[in-house]
Amino acid sequence: MTKSYFAKYGRTAIALLGAGVILTGCASSNDTASSNAGTFQTGMVNVQPTPGDAVKGGTLTYGVQFLPTSLDPAKTAARDDAGGALAAVYDVLMSYNTATGEFDPKLANSLDTNDEGATWTLKLRNDVAFSDGTPLDANAVIASINRYNDGKGNGSELWLASVESIESTGPTTVVFRLNSPWQRFPSMLALGHGMIVSPSAAEGDTFKAIGAGPFTDEKFSPNEERVFKANPTYYGGQVNLDQLRMVPLNGPQANLESLDAGQLNIAYIRGNSSAINTAKDKGYPGYISVLNTGGAEIINNREGHPGSDIRVRQAIAYALNPDLIDQRAENSEGLPGSELFGSTSRWHIDTPGIAYDPAKATELVTQAKADGFSGTLNYVVLNEPKDQAGGLAVQSLLQAVGFEVNIIPVNNAADLSLKVYVKHDFDLSHSGMGLYEAIPDLGLYSTVNSQSRSNTAGYANTDMDNLLLELQHAKDDKASEVVLTKIQTLWNETVPSAPISGLPSFWAWQKNVYEIVPSAAGIMLFDQAWIDTK
Predict the structure, then answer these.
(1) What would the pLDDT profile of 117-175 be if each residue is shown by its tens digit?
(2) 226, 275, 262, 217: which is closest to 89 by C-alpha?
């Protein structure tokens, strides 16, 4: 992404990426996805033996998709590589335990509810200070969260719709009162709301990244590197690493090649099934996760676009064959499927997505044309080999049922973000929605709630809004699955957009790197990480 683009649009683009808007890249799709699901099962792979004592010192170099231009959590969504950068500076009040699926206190000492999730009491550690020496107390937490919401940080709409009040009942105690019980409320404190910014960070005209995390911001060279140095006053004790260095590389294959060459200690290999499988086969340890609906055809539902007609949206969905698209784009190594939560997900349900039915699609296109639809779709596709292959497959499938599809190529992710997510200048886009496993409430709210600023498709449906509330207030996983069944059913009927696949990612590290800890939404935590140089 170019410096000039982010100077003008960086905040919006990064926020949309983190909100669940993703730039992606025959048997039935269910069969293909199931056969590959074991390969991409979420969790640690090539698990290392128990290490000896940690070695102090050294710089850990992390190959990422792009560098965040801002370390203000209210401007940069806490997801994936950008989330890792933010967590390095601010830490998180709560961290997601990827093994148990629960949220554990980290910067916080505890988070409890005694009324089934309507009131939550946060207890802070007594010994925590920001890197500028000021205490991280209850007032600082409240001020940071209020600032985040005022700045319209990612998830602020859901927070403001759900949390009635925040108050301090002591120097280290914060009480959150919600308008209804919400069992997954702790997830919000594992992302941007839980990255507490020092009161002095926003003093003056320039934001300063001051937190209580294991590192402090040291150097930023746009498009080249971001360097963090160990925070000597970190509450968790001496950080093992001297520095954490993040470098952007040209895609997942380049990240893997740089890992092979020893230029990286950890590589973020995103959305390229072949590269992920190669890295696994080479024995690299690391963490794999699958982004639900990480591959999707986003349909512009707004007036003035063909997708404002539900028949056009339905026709697009029925015309798509996820297995064929996967064959062309991923050599049948991906996770094709039209459901919201695929077979690798804890939220997977028995209700399938829309099945490939070209006859039904043809019928719907014919009906829409009879009422004045021209049949033309302007289709935005990233000019990158995998996306081109997938886009051409989609074009062929749609034209086979009566659409005329004009592919609009864009040169890079920045241009796609501007055209699709900022200007909404598209009919159809080969992109993705991205429902992160740890945060189903926030992911679905961001994607399809009628009031969400991150609702790229412009979909608005009161019944869906009500179901999202019902999901949020479900008392347990079983109740959530019942609501997710209703959501999938309504999705199939109204077609906000068309999912085509899950998106696997592999954070692969060298065999002499230890104790990198994955958390929510692709965030890696480096406070315990170390490199064995012996």
Answers:
(1) 999 999 999 989 999 999 999 999 999 999 999 999 999 999 999 999 999 999 999 99
(2) 217
Per-residue confidence (pLDDT) for residue 19, from 0 to 100: 43
Amino acid identity, residue 39?
A: T
d(CA 398, CA 454): 27
- Reference 430, options 65, 33, 29, 24; nearest CA is 24
> End-to-end alpha-carbon separation of the chain, Å?
38
Q: What is the largest CA-CA distance in the chain?
A: 74
- Model confidence at 34: pLDDT above 90: no
Mean pLDDT of the chain: 92
pLDDT cut 90: percent of the chain above it:
85
Cα 120 to its chain centre, rounded Å, is 25
Element at 89 (helix H, strand E): helix 80-90
- For residue 438, the 8-state DSSP code is T
- Note the pLDDT of residue 30: 53
CA distance linking residue 273 with residue 279, whole number of Å: 10
Cβ atoms 231, 216 nearer than 8 A: yes
Backbone φ, ψ for residue 524 (5° rounding): -100, 135
Distance CA 188, CA 195 (A): 10
In terms of phi and psi (left: phi > 0; alpha: psi -120 to 50; beta: otherwise), the region of 275 is alpha
> Residue 215: CA atoms inside 13 Å, Cβ hemisphere, count?
28
Cβ neighbors of 270 (< 8 A, separation 6 or more) are: 65, 80, 252, 503, 505
Question: Is the confidence at residue 41, as pLDDT, over 70?
Answer: yes
- Mean pLDDT for 87-104 is 97
Phi, psi (rounded to 5 degrees) for 410: -125, 145
The confidence score (pLDDT) of residue 233 equals 96
CA distance 237 to 214: 9
What is the rounded CA–CA span in Å between residue 324 and residue 274?
17
Q: Is the distance from CB of 299 to CB of 519 less than 8 angstroms? A: no
Closest CA to 13 of 414, 341, 481: 414
CA–CA separation, 150 and 85 (whole Å): 22
pLDDT of 205 reads 78
- Residues in contact with 338: Cβ distance below 8 Å, sequence separation at least 6, in sequence order: 29, 317, 320, 322, 352, 353, 354, 355, 498, 499, 500
**Rounded average pLDDT over 415-425:** 92
At residue 188's C-alpha, the angle toward residues 74 and 158, to 5°, is: 75
Q: What is the pTM of this model?
A: 0.91
